[in-house]
Amino acid sequence: MSTLDASPPTAGRTPGRAGRPADDDPPSGAEVDPAAARAAMVAELERNDGLRPGPVRDALLTLPREVLMPQAYVRRGAPGEEPPRWELLDWSVPQDRPELLGLLYGGASVLVQHDGEALLGRGRGTRSGASITSMSTVVGLTASLLQELELRAGQRVLDVGTGAGVTAAVACRICGDQGVVTLDRDRHLTDAAAVRLADLGLRPGVVCGSGDEGCPARAPFDRIFVSYAMQRVPAALVEQLAPGGRLLAHITSASPSWPALAVVERTADGQVTAELRAVEFAHRAGHGMQRIRLDEEFRQRIADEQGSWTQRSMLAPPADTDRGLWLAADHLLGGLVRDFGAEPLSIGAPGCGSWLRVEPVGRSRWDVTVHGPRDIWKELQDLAIRWRAAGSPGRYRLLFEPDGRQRAVSACGRLSWHLPLPRPLHEGAST
């Protein structure tokens, strides 16, 4: 699953444990009880993530994640240390199991691939530099989206972005593996998933190919699930949706800050309807997708510098819960990234060096500091007026226009934007 890209969780050292367990410190049986860990994970999902009784809950409760992810990475060293050091833990090694169990059932993303490596036959140990190229998404996000799909026995399911195979395994348990196809552009991931799903007695179709192209040979599908973020909904996936079918995919711009969930449905008579829902979290961006970010030096400038000017304002900044406004800002203003780790509202535009800092100073007063050629504060306030005039939407209709463009539009039609056109030779991603 997701990782989450807007506020990406990463697996670091296990709390309270400075490094790998010592070879002479074998775990007790209670420390490595996967069934108990699964039950605890599901209980946490029920308390905090809206997991309901039903087939998704039942599948997660019986799915041994250590079979799908018998190895996973943990980052070692001090926060921000460069180059990063990654240690691969292995379930077959007893001293690794307590920490690995915590990673697999702790709810956060599980890091499964470093620098595009093959997953089968690799040895445990430390890797330096490069980056994590595939992870299993935060389980709460995966569970909520799988519930949104309303999976049922006998449905034909396309899982785009195989990753560790968690989504495919849940779909197989609920729908039956004969109707499930899982697709990824990375053959190392599909090869490993095929082996590990078979170890669970599951044999879905496992295909290596472009996520944007789907799997026309096995279409149509009743459900299509994309486990990475995209800039638009691929036309091929919409075409492969069966009457009565549903497709879910996260949509983002180059900024990771304010994502949306695209919900596409085909009616019984073949008509396509779709909407964009502003959401707090999303999957990780797909392969080759351009991203803009705030580096540490830029974050410090926003936090510490005086800026071009500061004014005291009685106008409140948009609330975090105004997600429909932030989604519109992401597309209509463009080039903005929020520092979610900062206490004052902090937004930067890496392309031109502009930034905004908004600090509360007493009741209904804010100190607004801006810097650079863009007045981000004025841009946000002007857009807020338009957003409120459009009814303060949190959801937008997604229209597929005859020329191939995709347009998000508020219910009243007063606020709209086009999603980016597809890039040539763009392929799907593995997450």
UniProtKB/TrEMBL annotation:
Pfam families: PCMT (PF01135)
Enzyme class, first EC level, given as a word: transferase
InterPro entries documented for this protein: PCMT, SAM-dependent_MTases_sf
Record key words, sorted: Cytoplasm, Methyltransferase, S-adenosyl-L-methionine, Transferase
SUPFAM superfamilies: S-adenosyl-L-methionine-dependent methyltransferases (SSF53335)
GO biological process: methylation
Enzyme Commission code: 2.1.1.77
Subcellular location, principal: cytoplasm
Superkingdom assignment: Bacteria
One term of GO molecular function: protein-L-isoaspartate (D-aspartate) O-methyltransferase activity
Keyword Transferase: yes
Region (Disordered): 1-37
UniProt-listed Gene3D superfamilies: Vaccinia Virus protein VP39
Location relative to the cell: Cytoplasm
A Gene Ontology term for the protein's cellular component: cytoplasm
PANTHER family: PROTEIN-L-ISOASPARTATE O-METHYLTRANSFERASE, PROTEIN-L-ISOASPARTATE(D-ASPARTATE) O-METHYLTRANSFERASE
Family: Belongs to the methyltransferase superfamily. L-isoaspartyl/D-aspartyl protein methyltransferase family.
Name the UniProt record assigns to this protein: Protein-L-isoaspartate O-methyltransferase
